[in-house]
Amino acid sequence: MENKNIIYIIIANLLWSLIPVFVSELFKSISIIMIIFLRFFISGIILLLIASLLIYFNNKYFEKQEISLKLILTSIFTRNEKFYNLRYFTYLSLLGFFGVILQIIGYFLALKLTTVSFTMIGFQLSIILIAVYEHGIRLEKLDIFKILYLMILIFCISIIIYVKSQDETGLNTVNLLIGGIYVLFFGLCISFFNIAINKDSYSEAEIKLINKNPNFKIVRMLVKISLIFLNGIAFLLPFMMFIYFFPLEIHLYTEIKLFFNQFANLWSILCNWEMIVLIVFSTIIPYILIFVASFNWIPYNLSYGQWSSILSIIEPIGGLFFGVLFVKEIFPIGYLIIIIFLLIISILLRYINESRNKINAYILIGQKQGFMKSVQLNLLQLDGVESVRSLIGTHDILVNVKTNSIRDVYHLINEELKIIEGIETVDVLFIDKINKYKT
Amino acid sequence: MIKALIFCKVHHNAMESVVNQFNQISEIKKVFSLTGDYDILAEIEVENSDDLYNSFAKKIDPIEGIIKTNTHVVMKEFTK
Q: Do the strands B66-79 and A86-87 form a parallel or antiparallel pair, or are they unpaired?
């Protein structure tokens, strides 16, 4: 089952890597802002419709617990404890605007001004930035495998910059420099998105509903991503007005001006087959694949988030390959093979790094009488807790914990778990080896 | 369906042989080597309490190298 879900993640990344192919033709006549607006507005609406249909069919035809639309909507105004205690609505809006819309603006501007291969640097840069964040802020261990894959990524970036600086027929130095700023901006925004998307937290009511009806989880994911897209679009409009009246950046100003000029032709632009392919095959289908993988994920060794992060390097690999193949970008074949080979090696090194440093543990808990339900729900809300089992025996609860470092386990047990009211005893058993795992 | 967790303490040098024998029992779905108060955690899934008794009496109890087992029945599993 895990293999099937890994394949879904790979397909989703390959579909995302085809974005430069689909947009290269659109860029010739359509504003990039218009492409972004239509892509995320239409995708947001369609994903919201799919979520509504799932709620309707679940409530009408399945005997499991009803999914309450009211619960989903009210949860938007609750606070997200993992993200500076901001309201969920603000969290989704920040993710939508900075993590999606500005990220794609940077991505598309870099694609338009430079080349596909040069833009792919942004993905590699974001992996380096996230590693710096994990080491510097979260104090995660920097082992030999992590150092090696980071060095490989830096080496690949250097090769691409070298090749592009030598390409006399293509980019001039000014475009390379301005494009470099867009790539940096795109890399920063994608890093923010990847860090912030993991700060999602479930409310007690949501955890209760997931355990009564697992379908709620997929509905929640669909609503969440559609709100990220739609909130992002809502913030794009005032942002465009600001840049339109205060043209701080000339390329963006030109695109915004073109957007307003083309607004009357919105429908005909939407009916463009490249636009439809971009929305369906590079937005809706990949996100649904990712959600299905996450929904069906069986926590064997690495979590869904870790596999998803490891395989994210497929997008720049695919982008480079499809860019040369379909967009007819000039890139020396020898260098291309070296970069693709090195990036594949970096996936393997990342896998080794993640599997070696992952802390997988069971915690046996004894609880006071009268706290049975509240302790279990409180435990599930903690970051790193994968599952909670209620037991009959010498202990009352077994908690499966997966964290990225021993420091995270220490923090989880001593600063979060032990302070939960009703917990009496805590025994930690670290998993040394998984000898058998049948589902 | 009954799901139970068997925490085991085993003799020195008996770890590998106990794990191998656990791996061959079809009712045991998951086997983990642990560090801490127990050495092995085995998850067993059976249809009813008779099957649980039979698996214990005929397949688990005769395994040499096990010092002590502590079994917990799973009432409910919560995930997110």
A: unpaired
* Alpha-carbon gap, residue A415 to A136, rounded angstroms: 21
What CATH number is given for B2-73 in this structure? Answer: 3.30.70.920
Task: Determine the Cα–Cα distance for residues A309 and A6; give it in Å rounded to an integer.
Answer: 11
Burial of A311: CB neighbours in 10 Å, binned 0-12, 13-18, 19+: middle
Domain ranges of chain A: 2-356, 359-430
Radius of gyration (C-alpha) of chain B in whole angstroms: 12
Considering only the beta carbons, identify the residue of A202, A210, A393 that sits closest to B70. Answer: A393
Complex-level ipTM? 0.91
**Alpha helix ranges (H) inside A358-389:** 372-380
B-chain residues near A437 (CB < 8 A): 29-30
CB-CB under 8 Å, B36 with A430: yes
- CA dihedral for A307, A312, A314, A318, sign (positive or negative): positive
Answer yes or no: pTM beyond 0.95.
no
A:B CB pairs within 8 Å: 97
Q: Which CATH architecture has domain A359-430?
A: 2-Layer Sandwich (3.30)
Residue A60 pLDDT class (50, 70, 90 cuts): confident
Question: What are A's interface residues with B at a Cβ cutoff of 8 A?
Answer: 202, 207, 210-211, 362, 376-377, 380-381, 385-395, 398, 427-439
Chain B residues lying within 8 Å of A390, measured CB to CB: 74-78
pLDDT in tens, B8-59: 999 988 999 999 999 999 999 999 999 988 999 999 999 999 999 999 899 9
d(CA B49, CA B2): 7
Nearest-CA distance B68 → chain A (Å): 14
Q: Nearest chain A residue to B71 by CA: give it.
A: A393
* Nearest residue, CB atoms, A362 vs list B23, B41, B77: B41
A387:B77 CB<8 A: yes
* Torsion angles phi and psi, residue B19, rounded to 5: -60, -45
Number of other residues whose CB lies within 10 A of the CB of residue A328: 8
What are the sequence ranges of the domains in chain B?
2-73
